Amino acid sequence: MIPTSAHGTNPATATICGLDVVPILCDEEGNIDMVDFKAKIELHKDEVAAVMITYPSTYGVFEKTAKEICDLTHKFGGLVYMDGANLNA
After folding, report:
1. What integer pLDDT is reported at residue 6 of this predicted model?
2. Phi first, then psi: what are they for 32, rounded to 5°?
3. How far apart are CA 85 and CA 82, in angstroms?
4. Domains in the chain and their CATH numbers?
5. pTM, whole model, 2 decimals?
6. Which three-class secondary structure state does DSSP give residue 14?
């Protein structure tokens, strides 16, 4: 599961690793849309491998819901990868 705000290499890397990418929408401010995230993680709960988050996002947003995202992902057995590429700038 990868937010549409993530760094572009994240879905590419997941695909190269043989994973199916489930895009997670963002709200008008660039935050992960938690309604969409919760619906999709519930829909895919038996097959969640990971959530990849670029932090800060390509929009420059530090996700305020990062802990909730991590908790839900872990609840369904997934891992969380936080890509700090944009922080380097």
Report:
1. 79
2. -60, 130
3. 9
4. 2-88 (3.40.640.10)
5. 0.88
6. helix
CB atoms within 10 A of CB 1: 26
Helices (H), the chain: 9-16, 34-43, 66-75
Helical H runs in 9-65?
9-16, 34-43
Contact 36, 14 (CB under 8 A): no
Convert the pLDDT of each residue in 9-58 to its tens digit: 888 988 999 999 999 999 888 889 999 999 999 999 999 999 988 878 77
Two tokens at 51?
């959530």
Question: Residue 36: exposed, middle, or buried by beta-carbon count in 10 A (0-12, 13-18, 19+)?
Answer: middle
Q: Which position has the token pair 């969409």?
A: 36
